[in-house]
Amino acid sequence: MAKASERRQxxxxxxxxxxxxVCDPSQPCPCDLFKAKNICLCAGERLESPxxxxxxxxxxxxxxxxxxxxxxxxxxxxxxxxSLDDPRVLVGMPAGDDAGVYEVGDxxxxxxxxxxxxxxxxxxxxxxxxxxxxxxxxxxAMGGRPxxxxxxIGFPVRKxxxxxxxxxxxxxxxxxxxxxxxxxxxxSINDDQIKAGFSVTGFVETAKVTKNASAxxxxxxxxxxxxxxxxxxxxxQINRATPASLEAAAQSMCSxxxxxxxxxxxHEAHACTDVTGFSLMGHLSEMALRSGVDVEIVWDDLxxxxxxxxxxADGILPGAIERNKESCAARVSPGQGVTExxxxxxxxxxxxGGLLITIPANRxxxxxxxxxKSGVTQACVIGRVKHKGTxxxxxxxxxxxxxxxxxxxxxxxxxxxxxxxxxxxASVPASQDEEIVCCGGDTSSLHDTLPGVAGxxxxxxRFLTSVGQPIGLDVFTKQAINIALSVATRCEPCIKMHVKNxxxxxxxxxxxxxAVWMGVSFGxxxxxxxxxxxxxxxx
Length: 539
What we know:
The protein is α+β, with helices and mostly antiparallel strands.
């Protein structure tokens, strides 16, 4: 104990002399952690690991492949980087394919890839499986056979239970074992957001490399997994997903593309790519561009995970859709009858998605039959390669499928998110606290349960938080109600704050005024005079 105390004194003395913590130069010494918990990480002291269940998707901003850098930015960043001119590199960085291919002789080549992302599911073991399946997919997409893997993981040490790290790795190793691939090492870093993935090496016959640039006119397009994993993950993050869609998405994401790849090679498919973070449109438009063709897909023939159509009808569309549209929407041409929402769905970022295969029309039925027999039951034809072109994707609709009416709550009781043990801040700024009192927010991290009168106030704030959460009514609607009630009750701090929050949410002045007049209709002339005196109206 004496040695530990001496070590702390020595390290802290050095930090105080420098005016910066030697572990984190952005912090002073003593740091906030030391003041709150009397622990000095720089001296080798450790926080106790939290315990209890963890919902991983609540710990990250963007789940799964939605966390990846968008396609347009990536291309811009990479375009001027040098590439080694080596004839043994059959597919390299400039090709923009799923994996690199390097010839080793005797008609064989190495296939190499690496893939890392944030959790797309809440369960750690399942996340490890998804990360492994996703990483293997790039090798399968090239027609290759994976042989070894290295794990890569970022983990917030001592901020979530230690066993979470073990479960992620165990899930990944078990999935790799299912694929017949040994994990022979790896690398880990202490990171605020959990990330996991694998670097995978495989073999492929040089004559059977399935590139994304080989689609031919007349080919049919076959997709081997349903779409919508990004939409389902986002619905889960905001507690609007059904157990059925969460389960279906998880099973789809952790399913290997092994059988699909083997059958694709057997039936001599022309081209292939796997559909992941850049979305169906991103990967398909890239395939079309590099193949020098234009393609057509039919929206009504696209396979979707359960309840995705309802989520979309209710406006549950994640931000990754907009980033993907910025990258490739110019190469997508929606046909007559294709609505903006139908188009948006096709830009959903997928995690561990299916293979997108092009194959001559006279071999498509046989391939589909064998895919279904092998367990790839949702594989289907979604379109065709039309003619030589510039990489245009024509999105058409036959009208046989439509979106449901909005507003039907498909979520079920008992699907509340699992509590996540995360560090509790010592305090919350008064302005944030005030906002929670008036309009709801997350007070779970304000304090531990307080005694006496303070505890009553805390419980009241939590009640307001619960009322403010979107359940049957969405956030936009509840914000309008907040404005109307603030005017009707003539609460000056309330109306100022709610109008400010409404503008942050994208309300127009007309929409704010419309909500105000709802309040005036209940509060009468005094409410109208009150709002006009605030100087917040358009008149």
